[in-house]
Amino acid sequence: MAEPLVLPGFVNAHSHTFQRALRGRRTGEDFWAWREAMIAEAERQTPDTIQREYAETYREMRAAGYTAVGEFHYLGVEEARAAAEAARDAGVELTLLLTAYARGGSPRFLQASVEEYIRQVDELRADGLRLGCAPHSVRACPRDWFEEIGRYAADAGLPLHVHADEQPREIEECLEEHGMRPIELLSETGCLGPRTTVIHATHADDRELDLLASANSRVCLCPTTEGNLGDGFAPFTRLRERRIAVCIGSDSNVRIDPFEELRELETTARRESGVREVCDAETLLCFGADEGGASLGLEQWPVIELDAEHPCLRAVAGGDLLDALVFGCGADVVAG
Ligand SMILES: [Zn+2]
Question: Which residue(s) pair with 135 in the sheet?
Fold first, then answer.
């Protein structure tokens, strides 16, 4: 019997778990068409469906090696409690990233005011849930909401997660409304800091990435979803050049496999740059685990065991193990 291989559990820093229901469904020709189908799916959710379906999907994550998840949640307070229950059932550590939504989307996503949003965060914190603040995006929140939520999250020491620069249209609209780009607006409104994680940053320009670097903020990349939605290429090489910490998320849950997320990050950057080893395997695995944990404000989360006798590890020398995991394995190498 070979010794069991133990690694830190992977951390899924960005999941909209209800979107697992859309896996395999044909949902139109671009991101905006997909978004319509996604909103229709969101509107069907109830606390009961969430408790049941999320537990199944969290088990799928657990089996793939994710032992902690950040649930970017915009379906309501009762539904947040149901998600927490589902995570307990499945044995994954949950950080509930409660979303602030002022406009657009579905009426069920919305709070009437930023004060109402903060009351919801306080209420769930009082229940004992681990919370993070999540102004959805510059599309969904006006400037004063960012100012208020940035202040609240900093005072409370909570993680702050926000989508930014996923699609070119979002940047055009932001320039029109605010005369600046999305990450510039986050910086202006006090939303960038070491507890901030920007989701995607796909179309961020160099100045926006410089702002993230000087604020010590992280970026969460979700390559299988970004590929599926046609978002574009993650700016992985430019993030590495600035030493910006990266974490990963299964986002729409079209695919749940942390090895594949990490491999896509690195091999896409290799294709673009013609350089091998944009990032070494050890650092990639750290992005998949420790940086996600830090992004979600976790101090500990369960480790995972790998099947050392799995065929994909056959004839791999001990010193080559980490590279073999990132470049030659999938989630089925996780034992049990
Ligand atoms: Zn998202």
Answer: 100
